[in-house]
Amino acid sequence: MPRSSRRAPRSTGPKGVRAAGILLIAWTAACGSSETTPARSAPHSSSSRAATRPLPGTVSDADDVAKRMSPKFRECYQIGLWQNADQKGSVRLVIAIDGNGRPARVTPDGGDGLDRMVLSCLVSVVRHESFAPPAGGSATVTIPLKFGSDHQ
User: Fold this and answer.
1) What is the predicted pLDDT for the residue at 53?
2) Which whole-number Å values give the CA distances from 73 to 41, 88, 106, in the listed order?
3) CB–CB of 66/36 below 8 Å?
4) Pairing relation of β-strands 33-36 and 139-148?
5) Nearest CA among 59, 87, 89, 71 for reference residue 28
6) Other CB atoms closer than 10 Å to residue 49's CB: what's the count?
7) In the chain, domain spans
């Protein structure tokens, strides 16, 4: 019996990563682009401390949580496009994290060109997430976001 020339998909990481990447590309092509740059946990220090001890005010999983929220951020923007197809802009979400890893305060910084509904939705997404408890008891994380359509 002849062998099929079809190969099994190659796994390049955790299960579903390949499909998520394809979905992200398809979403961007269909709905416009949104850029999520890595979340930044403040304060950062360049001092040479031991690698095993995190800096006070840092959140170990800030980048992972930002990546996990990214599809929900894009959904907020997509819903906003239904209301106003011309909107585009950037915003920084400044998140005060309490000692338990919960967002105590979420403040949008910027957002010119984005409807108020989109900004409210972005803030709501963050409020429903949780982070690893910060080293030192509390921290501030900033997530910069940029939204715009590739089709304009």
Assistant:
1) 52
2) 19, 13, 14
3) yes
4) antiparallel
5) 71
6) 10
7) 57-152
Cβ atoms of 101 and 126 closer than 8 Å: no
116-127 and 62-83 helices cross at what angle (nearest 10)? 150
Greatest Cα pair distance in the chain: 65
Alpha carbon distance 2, 7 (integer Å): 14
Contact 64, 92 (CB under 8 A): no
Q: What is the pLDDT of residues 27-62, one digit of tens each?
A: 333 334 444 445 555 444 333 344 445 566 789 999
Whose CA is closest to 42, among 96, 4, 6? Answer: 96
In what helix (H) or strand (E) does residue 106 lie, and over which residues does it extend? strand 103-110
| pLDDT per position as a tens digit, 7-32 | 433 333 333 333 233 233 333 333 34
CATH dotted code for 57-152: 3.30.2420
Q: How far apart are CA 97 and CA 149, in angstroms?
A: 31
Does this model's pTM top 0.85? no
Q: Look up residue 102 and give its two tokens.
A: 């919960």
pLDDT digits (tens, 9 = 90+) for 89-143: 999 999 999 999 999 999 999 999 999 999 999 999 999 999 999 988 899 999 9
